[in-house]
Design brief:
Oligomer: single chain
Strand content: 15-25%
Number of strands: 4
Length: about 100
């Protein structure tokens, strides 16, 4: 599971269109990915500090390692940070998204 909130200057309508047209097809085209989907939190809660989460499912830990360490995914996530991330130039990647395995 990946949790995140795009930076404040992002047009969320554009972002959500990008999720449908680019992000979701990209991840679901990877052979090792069993399922990928994007979710938006609709109700504000003091217990949740993110607006979106992605559910990324693999059939095995080996499939996870292959995908997570691929140059293609590294390029894609770097581009995501540039376009939408809260801290696109930071080496502290957790400022943009949190990943839970």
């Amino acid at each position: 599971m990946l949790t995140y909130t795009p930076r404040e200057s992002v047009n969320l309508t554009d972002y959500e269109k990008w999720l449908v047209e680019v992000d979701n097809p990209f991840f679901n085209s990877i052979n090792e990915v069993a399922h990928y989907s994007n979710w938006k939190i609709l109700s504000k809660s003091s217990l949740i500090n993110f607006k979106y989460f992605d559910f990324l499912c693999f059939n095995s830990i080996d499939d996870f390692k292959i995908t997570w360490n691929s140059k293609e995914l590294q390029f894609f996530t770097k581009e995501w940070r540039r376009l939408w991330g809260k801290a696109p130039n930071s080496k502290k990647l957790y400022l943009n998204a949190r990943v839970f395995l």
